[in-house]
Amino acid sequence: MEGGENVAETTNLIQKQKELAELIDRFSQGEGAHATDIPSLYCIRGSKVTEPIYIVHEPALCIIAQGKKEVMLAEERYQYGPADYLVVSVDLPVSGQVIEASSEVPYLCFRLNFKPAQIVELLEEAELRAVQPGDSRRGLFISETSSSLLDAVIRLVRLLETPEDIKALAPMYTREILYRILKGQQGVMLKQIAVEGSSAYRVKNVIEQIKENYAQPLRIEELAELANMSPSSLHRHFKEVTAMSPLQYQKRIRLQEARRLLLAETADAAEAAFQVGYDSPSHFSREYAKMFGLPPIADMKRLRDAVTGEQLHGSFEAL
Prior knowledge:
By secondary structure, the chain is α+β, with helices and mostly antiparallel strands. It has 3 domains: 2-118 and 126-192, Jelly Rolls (Sandwich); 194-246, Arc Repressor Mutant, subunit A (Orthogonal Bundle), CATH 1.10.10; 249-316, Orthogonal Bundle (Arc Repressor Mutant, subunit A). The protein has 13 helices and 10 strands. It has helices at 2-26, 116-125, 147-158, 166-182, 188-191, 199-212, 220-227, 231-242, 246-263, 269-275, 281-292, 296-306, 309-316, and strands at 32-35, 41-46, 53-57, 60-66, 68-73, 76-80, 84-88, 92-100, 107-113, 140-144. Strand 1 (32-35) and strand 2 form a beta hairpin. The longest helix is centred in the N-terminal third of the chain and has 25 residues, at 2-26. The two termini are 41 Å apart. It comes from Paenibacillus enshidis. Residues 204-302 form the HTH araC/xylS-type domain. Keywords: Transcription, Transcription regulation.
């Protein structure tokens, strides 16, 4: 009997994934990430395997309806497809690469951005048990997609067919989606950012400080004071959440922003280096090549030879 129930559940999930894929396909004409009438919802489409795309990923839920993706956080590698969903709970510099897609069977992804305040409200109103203040977990995780989560996601995307219903129903469906994640196997990893005073909550504040002031020298003592931790404790908890040290986090933010400036052609390599906080263009060039595989000028030529500027800019938004 149990085997029959498992088969029925698997069949049900496949049908829902197909329905979600059809919806995303309908609302994502053309390559890249497509904003929708629901401000936090994006439908993403890609018709080919991509090079790694580097972004600072804001808190979001991503569900792939078709195709596969690989995400790199520091040295950690995460692969996921239609059977899984990915959650990012704090701002993280990552790279993402579509590893399974074609023009006949394109990569199709649902992305729902959210704010930590929404998690706080849900924990309070649903009386969900929060994590202990000392806990710190990784700020990115992959978990198994459930039928109940897909039901809520499909209802949200279907609202794009009836825009007059969005204002009344989108907040309700969004709350259900976040609730399903919090109740899921790894919900504790999302809860941690909402507990004021927890180690992860304090790390989140440090992340925001580094991100807003990435071009300024990093003063670990000041960051530790902001977090109300010792420097060694901050280093340990920061690495547990982000998989990197504060200095490594700042470096990735700097280099990704420099690459964006170069791609937009608003600065040459030396100007981009100074704008993001490097005193030495040669030091910048070495670190840029270490992260992206080529020095700045050669990297830009490779990117522009691969795709048009418009396509490339779109791909940077499509993680």
